[in-house]
Protein: Molybdopterin molybdenumtransferase
Organism: Acididesulfobacillus acetoxydans
Amino acid sequence: MQKIRVEDAVGSVLLHDLTQILPGESKGPRFKKGHIVREEDIPVLLSMGKENLYVWDRTEGLVHENEAAERLARAVTGPGLHLSEPSEGKITLTAEYSGLLYVAEEAVYDLNSLEYIVLATLHSHRPVEKGAKVAGTRVVPLMIEENILAEAERVAQSHNGPILEVKALRSWKVGVVTTGSEVYHGRIKDKFGPVVRAKIEGWGSTVIGQSFADDDIPMIQGRIREHLDKGAEMVLVTGGMSVDPDDVTPTAIRELGGELVTYGSPVLPGAMFLLAYLGDIPIMGLPGCVMYSKTTVFDLVAPRVLAGEHLTKRDIAKLGHGGLCLECKVCTYPHCPFGK
């Protein structure tokens, strides 16, 4: 600790809060502990009656908490994130635009295993709105050793790709094929289409058309081809996803040439979900739960595809951890454990 004249304090670090009293207006901390004194602060400090300050005696090899938090934040930040100004040794990261948050979990574990390093984030693949708080960085002591901070930066740089990133959802052209003889022959009203359309449009994409097919493999395949010919970049096939012998959607997609990623998912609701790729075009077979459950496997998978991911069997398998929806009376997804 060192006592110095205010005029000589530029660049020094305050060791305690300094309160400013404005009679009839306010009373509170004007400068907080850890603040680095700037040239423009000098007149304010003098007006507060501060002619001398107690500041940190700078020591070679030590980094102030504000600078350390900012360096750590910059080391982990990828596209789509905004860094706040440092406050009491903490930097807050917010989303620059709406999209999906991606977190390199192993890198987060590695960083937080270092002494005095703190990186707290939301779960990966969480939908976030523009301006949402997604992460925070800080260090534990007021001053941290340079070699510890440098090691944190090295760990961050050694990771392949950004540790934190927000990916915007692309606007896709989506075709919908509704299967089932009961709907095709007009015996019951289609309830799948409006639900799927609302979700797709809510994610910023467009349903370019919906067609209907009987439980007939060639007819289902023909409907899929029609959407592809019209420029569909994704095709959703609803119905026909159970284990009944006449539910032929999976067979139709396989025989069309689709590369099957999964038929079935470790998510409830959504166990009968299908994902395949016809070239680069994703085709999803949607189980009946999408029609009546507020949140399902569709809500976990589709946004990731719309963000540009090419999902694998392993990606689907990982959904089992956190893949049980509690089916609350009032759905609060994504502010809940589902999909985390």
